[in-house]
Each structure stands twice: as structure tokens, then as C-alpha cells.
Amino acid sequence: MNGVPERRMAQAAGFGRVGLVIGGDSAEREVSLNGGRAVAAALERNGIDHEVFDGPMALFEGIRAGRVDRVFNLLHGPGGEDGSLQGALQLMDVPVTGADLASSALTMDKVRSKWVWERNGILTPPFAVLQGPDMDGRDAIHSLGLPLFVKPAGLGSSIGVSRVENDEELETAIALARRYSPIVLVEKAIEGGEYFAGILGRTSLPLIRVETPRAFYDYTAKYESDDTRYDCPCGLPAAVEDGLREQALRAFDLLGASGWGRVDFLLDDEGQAWFLEVNTTPGMTDHSLVPQAAAEMGIGFDELVWLILETSL
């Protein structure tokens, strides 16, 4: 589980022509573009023949023209991480990095992911689901208590997420989440440390603990702030960390995810892990967590890109 992955492809030419798809039109476009520049540079340094495409339609045109043998997917959010791209490429018989259609769709849906985990003994914060034209979160406050998190059910990068400390903040938080998803998740806030487990093949990477002076690890803390602190090693005893890495890999497996990804969880004051979500196409910017965790294992960025590309084999 914790061994350093080894290359399976000996020569760059073995990958053929790689289509790196980035950007798209989801709310996570800028994150994808930033990571795409870094990945494209790594592909170049690795000597891998590649072409960069902005969004799925441009990629499909490249495939039809015979310029793409396999796809490195770095699209985040709907259209790239939700199974739609994976399904189209499956029909075209073009291999792609990361998870397949079914697991991409499941992991993108925070509500259904939590249902699967609950059924299989993985703890996840208690929650309520709001949908329909007349969303009212007062029952959620009554059943879950405060503070709460309000989230779109199908988006990443903490876009549209709010921490709600009192009744007056709830309506605004729901309205913000509804801008990004017709289904809104209201989740009990678990007080504790925020941890992230990168997954690469069958390896669970060293845990990262994130600390921010902001209310939570939001979009600004992830991509813009220089005040966010990343601890890797995470500071936990080795045996405790190993156990949590095993739990993270099991949470990843239960959703059918494969290839690479990231598992997010909270660790409360009693040492209990509460799992939040799985990302099947994590960020690859200079603030991103998977590259930091890989570096802790001695895997540089260029090698990480090579190993991620191997998940398309």
C-alpha cells in the first residue's frame, strides 16, 4: 500500500500521442488551466509527444483527426470529472487517465458517495439533502445543529461552499450552493484537523495536514493564499498515519475509483476519521496536495506526471 510506485512504461514513445485536456467550461476552469500548464511542461521535459486541448469538444476533434492515442485528463468538475468525458472516450476506444465512467459519476456526487460509505462502515459527517424549488434548511439546523457546511452536491475546489455559524447565514449559503448544483448538501461541521490522502495506483501517499487562518480550507486558502500551512509529514505517529492511509484507500476503493485521486477527511479530537469526498482528478498546481505528498515519497513532479499517465495503460 505504501511502497513507491515503479514505472511500467520504459520509453516515452510507448505512450503514443497524448492529448492533454484542460480548461473546459466548469466553475473550476482556472484551476484546470493553471495545473495544465505545469503538466504540459512536465510532459515536454519527459519527452512525451503531446498536444493540449481546451475542453472536450476540441479534444474530440483531435481524436477524429487521428492526433490522439490516449488522454491525460485534467478537467475538473462537470464535463470532465463526472463520467461524461470518460463515457465518450470509452465509446471511442481511447484510453484515459484515472477513474472510469461509473466511479467518476459516483465520486462527483457527494450525496451518493456518503450513502455508499455509510452502508460500508466508513464514517462521514451527518448530513441532510436539499432539492427542489423551495429549499429550506431549518430542519437541517434542528437535526444536525450548528455549525454546518453547505455545499453543492457535485463540484470541487470548495467552490460554492459556506460554513454556517448561525441561522441568519443559512439562506445566503443555500443560495450560493444552488448557483452550482440543483442538489445542496448540508453537513454537520466536525471540529478537528483537515487531512488529505493522495492515491497513486495502489499506493496511498503520505498524509498532508492543512491549516489555514480562514474559516475553512476554501478556494482562496487552496489556490491564492500564502498563509495556508501544509504539513507533510503530517505529524501523526507512524502507526496512526498508516492506519488512516489504509482507511483512505478503502474509502477510495468503495467508490470504485482507480488510477489516481485524493481522499479528504477530518480527524476529530478523539482520533476518529470522518470522510468527506474523493476527487478523481485532483489539482496539479503549485499549491496542490498530490504533488506535495508525492514529493515526500521522493517522487518529483515530472515522475508523478509519468506515473499518472501510466494509469491510462
TrEMBL record:
Q: Which InterPro entries match?
A: ATP-grasp (IPR011761), ATP_grasp_subdomain_1 (IPR013815), D-Ala_lig_Van_CS (IPR000291), D_ala_D_ala (IPR005905), Dala_Dala_lig_C (IPR011095), Dala_Dala_lig_N (IPR011127), PreATP-grasp_dom_sf (IPR016185)
Q: Which SUPFAM superfamilies match?
A: Glutathione synthetase ATP-binding domain-like (SSF56059), PreATP-grasp domain (SSF52440)
User: Where along the chain is Mg(2+) 1 bound?
Assistant: 264, 277
Which GO MF terms does the UniProt record name? ATP binding; D-alanine-D-alanine ligase activity; metal ion binding
Q: Could you tell me which pathway this protein works in?
A: Cell wall biogenesis; peptidoglycan biosynthesis
- The active site is formed by 28, 157, 288
Q: Tell me which residues bind Mg(2+) 2.
A: 277, 279
One matching Pfam family is Dala_Dala_lig_N
Write down the EC number.
Answer: 6.3.2.4
What main location does UniProt list?
cytoplasm
Q: Which reaction does it catalyse?
A: 2 D-alanine + ATP = D-alanyl-D-alanine + ADP + phosphate + H(+)
Q: Which residues cross the membrane?
A: none
Q: Where is the ATP-grasp domain?
A: 114-310
Cofactor binding comment, as recorded: Binds 2 magnesium or manganese ions per subunit.
> Which keywords belong to this entry?
ATP-binding, Cell shape, Cell wall biogenesis/degradation, Cytoplasm, Ligase, Magnesium, Manganese, Metal-binding, Nucleotide-binding, Peptidoglycan synthesis
Q: Does the keyword Nucleotide-binding apply?
A: yes
What does the UniProt record say this protein does?
Cell wall formation.
The name on file for this protein is D-alanine--D-alanine ligase
Report the gene name: ddl
